[in-house]
Amino acid sequence: MSLEQIDSIKILKEAVFSDGTSDYRDPCEPGINETVRIRIRTATQTIRSVMIMIDDKKIKMSLVERDSMFDYYEGVILLGDQQIRYYFLLQTKEQEYYYTTLGISDTLNLEYQFVITPGFHTPDWAKGAVFYQIFVDRFYNGDSSNDVLDNEYKYIGEGTVEVKDWNKYPDPMGVREFYGGDLLGIMKKLDYLKELGVEVIYLNPIFVSPSNHKYDIQDYDYIDPHYGVILKDSGECLVNMSQTNKDATRYIQRVTNKENLEASNRLFIMLVQQIHERGMKIILDGVFNHCGSFNKWLDREEIYEKANDFEKGAYITKNSPYHSFFQFRKEEWPYNNSYDGWWGHDTLPKLNYEHSPKLKEYILEIARKWVSPPFNADGWRLDVAADLGFTEEYNHQFWKEFRKVVKEANPNALILAEHYGDAGSWLNGDEWDSVMNYDAFMEPITWFLTGVEKHSDQYRSDMLCNYENFYGSMTHYMSKFQTPSLQVAMNELSNHDHSRFLTRTNHKVGRTTNLGPVAANENLNMGIMREAVVMQMTWPGAPTIYYGDEAGVCGWTDPDNRRTYPWGHENKELIHLHQELIQMRKSYSALRLGSIKFLTGTHGVVCYARFNREDQFIIIVNNNHYEVTISVPVWQAGIPRDYPLVRMLYTDMVSFGVEAASYYPQQGSIQMNMNAFSSVILKNYPCGLY
Question: Global pTM?
């Protein structure tokens, strides 16, 4: 085969493109029994025929458009009510090729077919939107009168701690430390979030709970008054640790008094109203697999036993109306401690859905309640969602019912799940909308840019700058998403469960227990952090900022990743970078909802395009500690040969800039000199328009 033939085959393969975005599927989210038009792009005059393949059915595609570089073929599919899977069969004079979500190949892998689920819609407001995750206790203290007090109650054997120094590092066993962040604090900082460019706020749990993380819900019906409003505040804290929580009368008054609970719910209503008035949305954390040992249904701490207006808990008596909510191993009432805990944790009682229709209906009502008036939250993030129930069959059955209830109450509500691994069986349009995107974002990004595992528990030099692994992982895992799910997937660099990304740039392995918190701040590489933010804000999905990441917060994995927001000590330059990138993302639909295509890469270097028919962007990242020169085939993004590219933003080890510079393709490619630890965003501009 001649060099000319090799080049022509290479061009043929690199030109072919299709996906589930609006340029290649119309409508993007077709309904049941609807007609959908499918398009594919090929190099001009290289293909003899193109067909859409659905099982053994062939749908011939017609040439409907031709420009200077590409031919566009279109075919029509009449949908029914069942999901369909398809791929493309392309024929040249010499041979046949298959095009799947992995790209073009002369062999067919049916695992990577395109998927359409008739009637599957995800909320438009969430597609490509910028999210901001808040761990409420550490964001801002807006009302000191509701702060948890020293020894207000006992949690896991010791008294609570009221932290007076906002800048103190969390203790290694900091689950009972409280800094005072609350809903009023969020309200006071909404203008900051709006100025940053945030479109959606995601709150870690805010319902009544004894821990600072609140993943051990005590009462699903009410906002915790420590985050809300305390009107009635009598009673005593614990004097010594020989006392039990039934002696914690101050705490009992605070969290069981209906005036406090109702006032806290009213404050939440005000918060949502103010968020909506600013054009933003809010989603809540739903912890439905387990509750907490303090929960009013169980009441292991005997908090509700003598409280007015509450039924007896299942720990207290077998005759409790909540008896079926838990699975008990022994008949040992009163005060039965033999209930099942999630992963064996007795502070996290596993909820017994299969044997309690009443529990299921209660939780479904909770799901409906908070996305309905007067509360009007815009969706749920679901904690450990795959663990709910005791069987996979029941799990899927529950989430189908959950979706039906939530979407009936609020058709535009978002349902996002925490999940590690392939979530495909939950993402078929009748359960979750999408997931926290570990597999197709956080994991590949952190390995490529830092070589450090997301908990900072492992460093692998073979993964650092490994472009082949990055490309392979991203391509494989992104293909597991249908387009409606991918466009709302939560793309995070950090969160409350993993180390701060900025700390990972130091390549250290450790936790606060063995290295101490100060080590998390040392030997940081801001150039890598800037690269990461550029990639986060130019990637398909919903970029999600973990509060304080934009301000330079560091930290090992939890609890150190839950440091307070550094008000008055922010990294202003990093905040400004976020603002510039968010504004750019919001200004161009190609960055929010457009296609993505990997263009080229090598050790430490990744180049990709985000594009639609209107705009085309080229993103180049050099994660090496040395300068590189790379040739980037920008024609693959649909950029004509005579169109200049203009630099929109660049970052390096020192800072970032938005000064424009022009680059002119030669034979469809540009040569780019990239400094160490740098990135650049280029945009095409037709001649005469810039």
Answer: 0.97
